[in-house]
């Protein structure tokens, strides 16, 4: 039985986060739709491969957002307002340092990444154009991770929603203008992405400045306790585990893209469309992960076991129900939705063939998404890394074993990875909870 108060708290965070994430996904869908209007499978494949490149590069640093949410929420649970400025100061300092390193490594990273994805011919040429433009928004993306995480950790999810909607409406308008009206093709898609990312940073920074958080962070920069060794080591350990775990997940996605590329531009374009629809479902269900991060983080900070158990149970139940609903929608309308993103008959036929996997993934993945939020909020990042490593091992084994099944085998291995992750997390959760709250 889920208490009404718990449900209210879950939905007060999950619903704005879901809408925010859907707005985030719209730019990927808009990109695929706009480039798909050109009826050029290699161009559509280039955008898909370029987007995967940037996802693989930047998503590895998503720990900036995740750790900021967890540390801010735990500080809120303890009633320690002074740590919020310190959290923002530390996280933004790390984001700036990483951004500088990424720009310095740009010449090597661009060519090595495309080689890794085995891009060739016109697909490689288009992907290189896309990445060469979008790469410059990388440091801004990192800063946005910190600002979004800090606002979510304070339960200011609605502010993030308004910013995301505004930035993505501009992004979609630029897609229509630059790709379809101006005829800039792949370059137009990349410029639209860079422009919306910069706008997002400006809006988020304005919110933070208006709330006085920037002044708190600036003051914290000069305080010795902000850079105390125990706090820095805790931040390092948290970010290290999240970074490695994200690298593994990103590696799985890149392997997925590489295997699709080996099947030719038609399969690559079809996989790209279906993957964007899967990302839409993922970002929708991720709202419950955000709720779990905040509520479990607050409960751990307050040493409140009952609140923690209620948050875990509530987010799993509501997330599971939503996952089933999304799977149902994709089961009924998946082929039609996927087919709307291309005018190439071969690509449309391929999306219809592989659409059943799209219907299965939300139902399989939702438990791992929610439990990720629980583990992050409770700072059990080492255990989360262990379960991800086990799931990755299964994924790699299945990629080899199911290779005779072609693209169907690729999707089956990808789906199994999420099921294994959820099973591993569920097995270790009770032990971790007993240890955390007995030590409180």
Automatic annotation (TrEMBL):
A cellular-component GO term for this protein: plasma membrane
Annotated GO MF terms: antiporter activity; xenobiotic transmembrane transporter activity
Topology with respect to the bilayer: Multi-pass membrane protein
Localization per record: Membrane
Primary location class: membrane
Signal peptide: none
Domain of life: Bacteria
InterPro entries: DinF-like, MATE_fam
Transmembrane annotation, as ranges: 12-33, 53-73, 94-113, 133-152, 242-260, 266-285, 315-334, 354-376, 383-402, 408-429
Cross-referenced Pfam families: MatE
Keywords: Membrane, Transmembrane, Transmembrane helix
UniProt cross-references to PANTHER family, sorted A to Z: PROTEIN DETOXIFICATION 44, CHLOROPLASTIC, PROTEIN DETOXIFICATION 44, CHLOROPLASTIC-RELATED
Family to which the UniProt record says this protein belongs: Belongs to the multi antimicrobial extrusion (MATE) (TC 2.A.66.1) family.
Identification of the protein by name: Multidrug resistance protein, MATE family
């Amino acid at each position: 039985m889920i208490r009404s108060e718990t449900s209210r708290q879950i939905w007060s965070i999950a619903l704005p986060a879901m809408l925010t994430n859907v707005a985030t996904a719209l730019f990927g869908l808009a990109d695929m739709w706009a480039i798909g209007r050109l009826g050029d499978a290699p161009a559509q494949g280039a955008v898909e491969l370029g987007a995967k490149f940037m996802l693989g590069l930047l998503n590895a640093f998503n720990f900036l957002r995740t750790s900021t949410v967890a540390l801010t929420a735990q500080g809120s649970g303890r009633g320690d307002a002074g740590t919020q400025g310190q959290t923002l100061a530390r996280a933004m300092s790390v984001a700036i340092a990483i951004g500088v390193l990424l720009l310095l490594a740009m010449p090597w990273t661009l060519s090595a990444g495309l080689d890794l994805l085995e891009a060739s011919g016109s697909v490689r040429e288009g992907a290189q154009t896309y990445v060469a433009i979008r790469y410059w928004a990388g440091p801004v993306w990192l800063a946005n991770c910190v600002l979004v995480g800090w606002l979510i950790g304070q339960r200011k999810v609605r502010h993030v929603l308004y910013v995301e909607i505004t930035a993505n409406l501009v992004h979609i308008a630029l897609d229509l203008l630059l790709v379809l009206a101006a005829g800039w093709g792949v370059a137009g898609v990349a410029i639209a992405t860079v422009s919306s990312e910069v706008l997002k940073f400006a809006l988020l920074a304005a919110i933070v400045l208006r709330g006085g958080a920037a002044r708190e962070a600036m003051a914290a920069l000069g305080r010795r306790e902000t850079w105390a060794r125990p706090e820095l080591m805790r931040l390092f350990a948290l970010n290290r585990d999240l970074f490695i775990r994200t690298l593994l997940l990103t590696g799985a996605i890149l392997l997925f893209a590489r295997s699709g590329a080996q099947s030719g531009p038609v399969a690559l374009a079809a996989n790209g469309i279906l993957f964007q629809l899967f990302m839409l479902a993922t970002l929708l269900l991720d709202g419950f992960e955000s709720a779990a991060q905040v509520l479990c983080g607050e409960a751990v900070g307050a040493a409140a076991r009952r609140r923690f158990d209620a948050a875990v149970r509530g987010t799993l139940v509501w997330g599971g129900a939503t996952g089933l609903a999304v799977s149902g929608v994709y089961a009924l309308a998946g082929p039609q939705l996927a087919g709307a993103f291309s005018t190439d008959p071969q690509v449309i036929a391929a999306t219809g063939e592989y659409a059943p996997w799209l219907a299965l993934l939300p139902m399989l993945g939702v438990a791992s998404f929610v439990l990720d939020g629980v583990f992050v909020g409770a700072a059990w990042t080492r255990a989360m890394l262990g379960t991800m490593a086990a799931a990755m091992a299964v994924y790699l084994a299945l990629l080899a074993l199911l290779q005779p099944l072609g693209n169907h085998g690729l999707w089956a291995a990808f789906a199994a990875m999420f099921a294994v992750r959820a099973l591993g997390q569920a097995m270790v959760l009770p032990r971790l909870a007993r240890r955390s709250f007995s030590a409180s």
